[in-house]
Amino acid sequence: MSQMALSEVLEQLPAGVAVLDPSLEITWCNDRLRKQARRDELPLGESFYDLFDSPEILGPDLCPFHTAIGRGQPARSTLKIDDKRFYDVHVTPLLDTDADPAAGPDAVHSLVALVRDVSTQIQQQEKLHAIHQAGLELGDLMPQEILEMSVEDRIELLKAKISHFTRDLLEYENLEIRLTERETLELVPLLAIGMRDEAANRRLFARPEDNGVTGFVAATGKSYLCEDTESDPLYLAGAPDARSSLTVPLMLHDEILGTFNVESPKPGAFSEDDLQFLELFGRELSVALNTLELLVAEKATTVSESTERILREVAGPVDAILNDAAWVLERYIGHEPTVCERLNQILDRTREIKQLVHEVGESIAPRRSHLPPPGRQQRPRIRDKRVLFVDGDESIRRAAHELLERYGCNVETAHNGDEACLMLRQSHYDTVVADIRLEDMTGYECFCRLREINDAVPVILMTGFGYDPSHSIVKARQAGGLKSVLYKPFRLDQLLTELEAAVGEPV
To answer: In the chain, count of helices (H) and strands (E)?
Structure first.
């Protein structure tokens, strides 16, 4: 191929190409590189880094040109030009044909740099990370932070967070969120911004016909991209002058909680990327809504707020004492009978602390005539059953105490697999609930060790959104003895049902 033909081929590449001398001055480049650098003329004779105004080098090679020269091998890095422009740079050294490869930098006579625009990919990655972080903040509704807030205040807090992230993160100005009323299937408005009053107050139901795009999405669980509102038969007028819309279901496992709708005055304003981002954000929002629902429902059945507050603070230290006492007891068994006896007394007395808090709390808590009897009387199958909850996440361990102990469970927790095995060797438990992601062993390893200690204790494994890289659940099922699997975030009633099945018939 002639040099002219080669040059024509390089001009047609969808990437910038530059040939540089060892001092990093550009001796040749194609027009694509000129456009990437936003120059009027080909930047021949300029330093490569000056061409992009000394960009930030993100790696993996922090000095890709010098790495290529020094090693005589290709190198790459990502350059950040500004907040919205990112380029991948692949550098290949050209060696003198008669040079000794061992000569190092002296063997390199030129460098070829291939520059690809990766702005879209990196922005998508950053947006996905931001959506995940937004989900964490949306779900940050643990009882200790909003204990004094009314249900209405909690909802307003969540709505404010949704509005903030939808506008600042997703950059959508017009939005509507509706939640499905389980009994009637009516789609009740939760939040509307930029919508006409008649649209925000319109009665809609989760039905595929005669209820617009929102009703169709709520009934089918399928997202809907409306490219042009003027020609779409399903679309019902929402935001003023809206020409396109995007609606996704709010899903929690297989349950449709509601819908999330955004609209734009531009036709075809939403892409497949927008659809992906809104669906991801919708999942995070569903978890937050579910958390809020659990908090509201459980608030009504609590024995008393004062008892909850005391138990919340006591649960962690009590578990720490139990863990430490069991650890010490393990080492004295068979050596010091008197010490072992005293340690067992410590374990028994420590467990009595929470029981006493419950009893005193129930005796002094003010009764509310409009509430049902305390939750400890509503689940007789699990009342007074001892459950070992194994999870490395402190918030999960706290939640296990706060939610299950309202139903009369005696909950104890372990941070990892070794601690769980230690607790099971020293004490009786009616069931063990263990996360498959532990710091010291896989879920399957933990399952096997628990079964070796006590093959009669029912074991329930937990995983987040089916995440199981070591196939712990499949292996545990094949081994036999796995009671059930819970997929986070699970509803409280699912956990209670599985616990009831694990511990057997009611007393």
So the answer is: 17, 16
